[in-house]
Amino acid sequence: MISSFRLISYLEGISYLLILFVTMPLKYIFESPEPNKVIGMAHGFLFLIYIVFAFLIKPEKQWNIKTLMIVLVCSIIPFGTFWMDRKYLGKTTKT
User: Fold this and answer.
1) Over the Cα atoms of the chain, what is R_g?
2) Three-state SS string across 26-51, please?
3) How far is CA 2 from CA 41, 64, 85, in A?
4) What is the per-residue pLDDT for 38?
5) C-alpha–C-alpha distance, residues 82 and 95, integer Å
6) For residue 27, what are the contacts with CB-CB under 8 A and spacing of at least 6?
7) What was the pLDDT predicted at 95?
8) More confident of the two residues 3 and 44
9) pLDDT digits (tens, 9 = 90+) for 19-37
10) Closest by alpha carbon to 44, among 83, 4, 7, 11?
11) Which of 2, 15, 50, 90 has the fewest CB atoms within 10 Å, i.e. is most exposed?
12) What is the pTM of this model?
């Protein structure tokens, strides 16, 4: 389940960065709102899955409430999900 959460966190983080740095400028500078609608919907779906997975992973990783709150807040900070992955999910090694 942790590998699924890692994938979701990366996708959620990428979609958030796309919204901030690609689709929002397209919407407000170039008056093209369509990409924002598509990426925004995907990001919303990924955000909800991220939240659900964070709660499902909590017992497995033995996170306390403070750690869970940090993991949840990371989803609304640009680049936060990438930091969260490194800090709280750790590196995975393939052997």
Assistant:
1) 15
2) HHHCCCCCHHHHHHHHHHHHHHHHHH
3) 24, 17, 10
4) 95
5) 23
6) 33, 35, 36
7) 43
8) 44
9) 999 999 999 999 999 999 9
10) 11
11) 90
12) 0.87
